[in-house]
UniProtKB/TrEMBL annotation:
Keyword Membrane appears in the UniProt entry: yes
Keyword check for Transmembrane: yes
Keywords for this protein: Membrane, Transmembrane, Transmembrane helix
Species, as recorded: Abrus precatorius (Indian licorice)
Protein's name in the database: SPX and EXS domain-containing protein 1-like isoform X1
Highest taxon above the source species: Eukaryota
């Protein structure tokens, strides 16, 4: 009727952008498992499908498709060549600069690209988290209430790969153009990159993983304006944002310089007077993620009446004195800072670090649940090395305590002069959050499973009580 037009079953036209191919299975009807001459119907279906595939596919199609191993090697080779070229161009450009302004210019370049580099690191580690969950049998889509088009670890790594390529390439172009005297073109590089990131996130068309972008932006909106009940994904992303306050503070300074056209000018006295380290906007940017999380806890207490939500809110409130007492150093006399505010800052730092560590271990992780997360569904070397090993728990607890204490360094604005040290500590905090995610998700998955078992047993005895449990919120934030 249509001229023999054949549409493959897994055609991309049958699925949304960013979703997985739709695979059709042969339909089996009762009593139709066998056909004439004892031939299985599924085998006939498979044979006809193969014949059809052979008829529609060119003879040389198989020969021209490279193997996955060859593609992987080509990608690795391309990545190494690209990295070498960027390093070579960047190094040559830096050595051509005047030694008097070289360090200042590198600090400014680092300021613009540091937020994107840290965000890229977080995306890479999140992909590793998802890979572990898929291997360990943790149903993370159910925990986060994701649809069938959610990103897998491979797709997250694909996004991270593009971020890893684009951000350093723009930074290399920025340094190269400035060393060649093309100041206006150099100044346009970070501006174009930030504009491209915003456009990709808010692009309304059904491309670039539209459903995942919408889910992310919707969750951000719920974090900023907690006008409805707090879901697990709301508080989970808000916790991750508290580990990325370095990104927020540097974004504030970068956008401020772009708005005031101070990119690639090296007008440091003028720049510092508007967007410098003494600006009040920096502690405000640092404290915002903690205030968002604090509001979530208060909203949870209003909805549930649980007193643990108030204790959790108290934990986030302890970060506020650390941030603002540190910022006072630029607005009070040195003697007053040394004699009064510095001891208060140290005391508040200790309280925040110890309280946060206690909450991580006892509440977010629940040490009794350290039994399953590294046990892969199939035998694997990592599963053998990590599952049930006591050193894993000692390492996670010890490193979490140390990194909780060092993270106070970044919350303190008066300790931000050594940008390489601050970047290292910010990266280590992201790594700490990466470890935290494993056990936090495992704890939530164990809660869901235990409540499901209780729900089934109660449903057998008392159906009405089971229905109440079914409609209860299984997440504790």
């Amino acid at each position: 009727m249509f001229g023999g037009l054949v549409i493959p079953v897994n055609s991309p036209h049958l699925r949304k952008s960013g979703s997985r191919p739709v695979v059709s299975e042969p339909v089996q009807f009762p009593g139709a498992n066998e056909v004439e001459n004892g031939v299985d119907e599924g085998v006939l279906y498979s044979t006809e499908a193969n014949d059809l595939k052979s008829a529609t596919m060119p003879i040389n199609a198989i020969a021209i498709i490279p193997s996955p191993v060859l593609l992987w090697r080509f990608k690795v080779l391309f990545f190494l060549v690209w990295g070498f070229i960027c390093c070579k161009i960047g190094w040559d450009s830096v050595t051509r600069m005047n030694a008097n302004k070289r360090d200042l210019f590198l600090y400014e370049a680092f300021l613009y690209y540091n937020p994107l580099l840290l965000a890229t690191l977080m995306v890479w580690l999140w992909g590793i988290n998802l890979w572990f969950f898929s291997k360990g049998g943790v149903n993370y889509p159910k925990i986060f209430d994701l649809d069938q088009n959610h990103l897998t670890h491979r797709e997250v790594w694909k996004c991270a790969t593009w971020m890893t390529i684009i951000a350093p390439t723009s930074m290399t172009a920025y340094i190269f153009l400035y060393s060649q005297g093309e100041v206006s073109y150099a100044a346009s590089q970070p501006v174009l990159l930030y504009a491209a990131v915003v456009m990709v996130l808010i692009f309304p068309s059904d491309i670039f993983y539209f459903s995942s972008r919408y889910y992310f932006l919707r969750t951000l909106w719920r974090i900023v304006f907690p006008l409805q009940a707090i879901s697990f994904s709301d508080f989970f992303l808000a916790d991750i944002l508290t580990s990325m306050v370095k990104v927020f503070s540097d974004l504030e300074r970068s956008v401020c310089r772009m708005v005031h056209r101070q990119v690639a000018t090296i007008a440091w006295l003028e720049a510092d007077s508007v967007c410098g380290s003494h600006s009040v906007a920096i502690p405000l940017a640092l404290v915002l993620p903690y205030l968002f999380r604090l509001n979530q806890c208060l909203r949870q207490y209003k909805d549930t009446g649980e007193k643990t939500a108030l204790l959790n809110a108290l934990k986030y409130s302890t970060a506020v004195p650390v941030i603002f007492l540190s910022a006072l150093k630029y607005h009070v006399s040195p003697e007053r800072w040394t004699n009064l505010y510095r001891p208060l800052w140290l005391m508040s730092s200790v309280v925040n670090s110890q309280y946060s560590f206690y909450w991580d271990v006892t509440r977010d992780w629940d040490l009794s649940g350290f039994t399953r997360i590294f046990k892969f569904s199939k035998p694997h070397l990592l599963s053998h090395l990590l599952h049930g090993r006591r050193w894993v728990y000692f390492w996670v607890s010890g490193s979490n305590l140390v990194l909780r204490c060092t993270w106070t360094y970044k919350l303190s604005a008066h300790l931000r002069h050594n940008h390489l040290t601050v970047f290292t500590i910010a990266a280590l905090e992201i790594f700490r959050r990466f470890q935290w995610i494993f056990f936090r998700i495992e704890n939530e998955w164990n809660k869901i499973n235990s409540k499901s078992h209780i729900q089934l047993s109660v449903d057998d005895d008392m159906p009405n009580e089971g229905e109440k449990l079914l409609h209860s919120n299984p997440h504790s934030v």
